[in-house]
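Title: Comparing notes on inverse folding

I've been comparing how different people in this forum approach sequence design from structure. To keep things fair, I'm posting one structure and asking everyone to reply with a full sequence. Here's the target:
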């Protein structure tokens, strides 16, 4: 089902990585990766309209019958700087060398486009059967620590477990993290993992100490079930509600919107909220993600009181109405609106006419 319609008799084209894994698991793949033993840019342009070429990586993206397919040249890599992008040492190497640079055995399977044969140099087929994630060599997490997060993502997505030795290597790495790593990749993997909205993934992230890749500060598991919270109150930035629990995301490059969510939460955390009026005013302009963080890290009941009961209460009276009552625009307006809101929070059924009466009483008092 993941296969695209490519006829090739060269014997040098292989489906590779996630697409082979997903097909064997009977799952749909997000993207289709094909590797060519040799120079893919020269060979693969003929399969359709070329969308993008990257000569440095020997890759080419082609539209094959309406699906975007990434063709890569087989390549060998070394990690000169651990935790950062590898340096390509050879483009057009043998298939085995290309496979051995990869993260887990289940991601190191190839399927010949010419014969349909599965090529398994690392025991990936057995691991797939046994639902096991196993790295290909002991230095795998040192080369690329984002693989620890990828392991979490795949284990939750497929219900797989890390093999014992791989778990030991992970624990070893997490006991002495090298923070000089490419956080752009860390962020990408965190987003993909937490966007699964899985409480289980988050609990493992905290309990197994995977969070130590992001911050040196100690993190404890909150009692609130974040998955349930997000199901009840959907948000766009699911991942950030989970990651925000770490409080310290200074190593990640956040967008302005993401920063605003965390800043809003910091303000909320220190806001006085002793009654409905203060709760309403504190939350009314905050992003929903910030409110959920407040629910998780500070006070769930208060946040839910706002989300369930208060947020839909809106006063109808506006500045124009006040002018019609002969009140000139001034800072007094804010006090009047506050008085209306206080009354309306206590009695949400209040009509527009009731609100005007509040204004009149306020003016008389
Ligand atoms: N890969 C790796 N180490 C990484 C990232 C990727 O070895 N840090 C290799 C794996 O062989 C992987 C392939 O590159 O299968 C493609 O990477 P990616 O598209 O990120 O992963 P997929 O396995 O295709 O998973 P997904 O289904 O999430 O796209």
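Reply #1:
Here's my take.
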């Amino acid at each position: 089902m993941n296969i695209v319609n490519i006829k090739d008799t060269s014997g040098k084209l292989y489906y590779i990585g996630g697409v082979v894994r997903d097909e064997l698991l009977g799952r749909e793949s997000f993207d289709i990766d094909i590797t060519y033993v040799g120079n893919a840019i020269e060979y693969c342009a003929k399969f359709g309209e070329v969308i993008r070429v990257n000569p440095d990586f020997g890759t080419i993206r082609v539209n094959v019958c309406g699906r975007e397919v990434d063709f890569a040249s087989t390549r060998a890599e070394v990690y000169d700087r651990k935790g950062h992008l590898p340096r390509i040492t050879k483009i057009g190497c043998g298939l085995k060398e290309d496979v051995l640079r990869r993260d887990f055995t289940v991601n190191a399977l190839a399927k010949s486009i010419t014969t349909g044969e599965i090529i398994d140099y690392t025991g990936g087929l057995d691991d797939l059967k046994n639902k096991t994630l196993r790295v290909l060599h002991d230095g795998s997490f040192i080369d690329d620590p984002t693989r620890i997060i990828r392991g979490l993502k795949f284990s939750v997505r497929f219900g797989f477990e890390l093999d014992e030795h791989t778990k030991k290597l992970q624990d070893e790495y997490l006991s002495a993290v090298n923070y000089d790593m490419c956080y752009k990749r860390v962020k990408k993997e965190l987003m993909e993992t937490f966007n699964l909205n899985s409480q289980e993934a988050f609990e493992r992230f905290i309990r197994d100490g995977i969070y130590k890749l992001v911050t040196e500060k100690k993190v404890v598991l909150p009692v609130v079930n974040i998955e349930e919270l997000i199901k009840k109150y959907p948000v766009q930035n699911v991942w950030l509600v989970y990651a925000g629990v770490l409080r310290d995301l200074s190593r990640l490059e956040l967008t302005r919107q993401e920063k605003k969510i965390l800043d809003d939460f910091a303000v909320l955390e220190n806001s006085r909220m002793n009654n409905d009026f203060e709760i309403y005013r504190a939350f009314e302009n905050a992003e929903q993600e910030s409110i959920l963080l407040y629910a998780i890290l500070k006070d769930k009941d208060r946040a839910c009181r706002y989300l369930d009961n208060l947020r839909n209460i809106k006063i109808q009276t506006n500045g124009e109405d006040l002018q019609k009552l002969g009140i000139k625009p001034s800072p007094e307006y804010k006090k009047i609106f506050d008085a209306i809101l206080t009354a309306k929070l206590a009695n949400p059924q209040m009509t527009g006419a009731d609100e005007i009466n509040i204004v009149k009483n306020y003016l008389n008092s």
